[in-house]
Amino acid sequence: MRIEPMDKDTVEGIVQKAVQDAVDFIESEISEPRIRAQRYFDGKVDIGHEQGRSKVVATKCRDVVRAIKPSIQRVFLSTENPVEFVPRMPEDVAVAEQMTKYANYKFQQNNGYRMLNDVFQDAMVKKCGIAKVMYEDKTETESFTYTGLNEVEFMFLAEDDDVEVLEQTITQQIEVDEMGMEIESPIYDVKISRTTYDGDILITSVPPEEFFVDRNSRSVDDFFVIGHRTDMSIGDLLAMGYEEDDISGLTGTVSTMDAEAEYERRGYTVDEDDDQSADPTSKKVAVTEAYMRVDVEGVGIPHLYRFVLGGAGYKMLSYDKADEVPFAVFEIDPEPHAFFGRSLVELVINDQDAATAMLRGVLDNVALTNNPGLEVVDGQVSIDDLLNNEIGRIVRVKTAGSIREQVVPFTAGSTLPALQYFDMLVDNKTGVSKAAQGLDPDVLQSATATAVAATIEGAAGQSEVMARNLAEGGMRQLFRLIASAIIKNSDKEEIIRLNNEFVSVDPRVWNADMDIVVNVGLGTGRENEKAAVLRETIQMQMSIWQQYGPNNGMVTMTNIRNTLADTLAAVGLKNSERYYLPVTVESEQQLIAEKQQEAAMAQQQQQQQGGVASSDPNQAFLMAEQMKSQSKAQVDMAKLQLDAQKASADQQFKMHELAMKDDLKRDEMVQDLAVEVAKILGQYNATVDVASVKAEQDATRAHNEQMMGGYGLQG
After folding, report:
1. Are strands 163-176 and 182-206 parallel, antiparallel or unpaired?
2. Which residues contact 148 (CB under 8 A, 6 or more apart)?
């Protein structure tokens, strides 16, 4: 079979059908459970109620989400670097550290907390949370006005590729030169526009109803079509470079196509009246960004493409090759071999219905017990008096005993254990319990510390699994996309502020395939235990350092600094630079040299006082090693000083060499000037004082030779 390249119409037809099928799948099978989950999270239920009876709702769905979200957020946001890049080779250590700090810096710059809050809640309520990483080009145009520019200044300004001359006014200015001659020169008054081009990483959370994927996909790496559809204004499309003819006929918005999902997300109806503004560029239209692997060139191998489609009819606006899909998917309960897993709300929807029905029954029973019905003899009681609910009311009767209260059995007491049973079911499903939150006085008072710890640890197991799913899925993919976007769109070194220092970074030399580790471990909610382990670690590190010295082979100052930073992070203090200065290779080497010098001096004092026993071979060996290290440090320091002196002398020699060349050039210019002046003055029968010119040259040269001789550089 011979494969031919595809024309634009063929490609458009393939993409339109794929996108339409994927959108139909989302709206028919995924949107409905999402909408229902959002309704239950908002405190609504599908079960009905009788007129005049309780309408209360047991908000189990919202309660479990609000209870578990703080602990999960704390897992990712309590550490200084929630994600780290791990070097594969020894030479990648510095690059990995730089990538870690820069990627986390970009994450925080894009309001990482708010983005994680959104995707975590979407994952708990709507099956999955979607984060998107893009590189946004920024173009800014400013107008400037300049007056009194000469011709050279004007040409320099006009030849700038980023400058457009909008207006210019030229006037002729008469000047008198040194010879008394009038010279006419142009003067420019101009108005220009300067366009600056810039860009940056943009990290956003995508509303779940705007995201689509085909029904056969299994993950963000295994799909047929995947994409994002959102509403954009005509003005936005024009700013993106699309022609007015291509977008003039576009109609339809995402909100109108999936209005119910939009309403449940916002909580109110959005006004989609296109005529609400007289500005036609304000009109909103649906814009679909789809990613598919298509063999457009006809080479037999499909490549990943990014397609931009406009309107409800998915009109092709543009397409180009893509390196990767810009989406990171967050899930708390992934389903094997399926793209969409289960949300936390889906696990407790039925429990919310049951608890709501029972709670309504309890409240209705209490109300009927406190306000029972009345039996009255017809015609013997004033009905108007009975309808008066005021305290101390008077009811007129014709015969005594005409009113009798109906006996309503109190059953609410027997219903409360059933409600507690449903609470236990929810706790077992989600791991959200009063014990885990430290709110159950019965558990805390009646059990031993070991039993309490075991209870809390067991309850935290579910939340730890959720955190691990979020970390190994969406979080890892998110930072992979951040690093990739930085590398692909960097064309120069940058100066950024990291650890309270301005450092130079060059993402062009980074390795995008470097391993990624998410700093989320089991037991992440036990901050006290972590802090205790870190305190023991720092004690052991300091013991090794003090006993065996800086060159112990086990613990460095960097290790100690990291332990101190983690100790602060365990109690929520992420800004470790506020308390401890960063440790660099240079500062650590300097500290080691100082410690070695102190040890050598102490050794000499002991020898002078006779405090060292010659019979101790270990001590003698240790002293010999210290002396060797001291000698090496002194030799290295002397070498550094010698190199510095040599570099300084070389620099001085180069400076004076340039000065001599400058003198030679100046001589030539002075001589040329003298010749030109002679030519001009010859017309007027004047003469040139050659002797004075030569004297000036000789004086300048003598000064330079004197300066070189002062530095010992004169031959």
Report:
1. antiparallel
2. 187, 188, 189
Q: What is the pLDDT of residues 278-308, one digit of tens each?
A: 677 888 899 999 999 999 988 888 999 999 9
**Are residues 314 and 16 in contact, defined by beta-carbon separation less than 8 angstroms?**
yes
DSSP characters for 125-150? HSS-EEEEEEEEEEEEEEEEEEEEE-
Cα–Cα dist 513/483, whole Å: 9
CA distance 652 to 660: 13
Bridge partners, 130 (sequence order): 206, 329
Contact 427, 459 (CB under 8 A): yes
CA–CA separation, 72 and 124 (whole Å) = 11
The pLDDT assigned to 714 comes to 46
Half-sphere exposure in the Cβ direction for 704 (13 Å, CA): 20
Residue 13 DSSP SS3? helix
Who's near 203: CB < 8 A, 6+ residues apart? 106, 107, 110, 112, 115, 131, 132, 133, 478, 482
Other Cβ atoms within 10 Å of 134 Cβ, number: 15
Please state, in angstroms and rounded to a whole number, the distance separating the CA atoms of residues 290 and 275.
29
* Cα(591)–Cα(399) distance, integer angstroms: 105
Calculate helix-pair angle for 617-682, 690-710, nearest 10 degrees.
180
- The neighbouring-strand residues paired with 596 are none
The predicted-structure confidence for 253-286, as pLDDT tens digits, reads as follows 886 555 666 666 666 555 555 445 567 788 889 9
Per-residue pLDDT tens over the stretch 121-134: 999 999 999 999 99
Amino acid type, 656: H
The reported pTM is 0.66
Q: What whole-number distance in Å separates Cα of residue 438 and Cα of residue 288?
A: 47
Q: What is the DSSP letter of 671?
A: H
Q: How confident is the model at residue 155 (pLDDT cuts 50, 70, 90)?
A: confident
Q: State how far the Cα of 501 lies from the Cα of 7, in Å rounded to an integer.
A: 54
- Give the single-character DSSP code of 578: G
Burial 345-355 (b: 16+ CB within 10 A, else e): bbbbbebbbbb
Cα dihedral sign, 617-622-625-626: negative
Instruction: Note whether 536 and 138 are within 8 A (CB).
Output: no
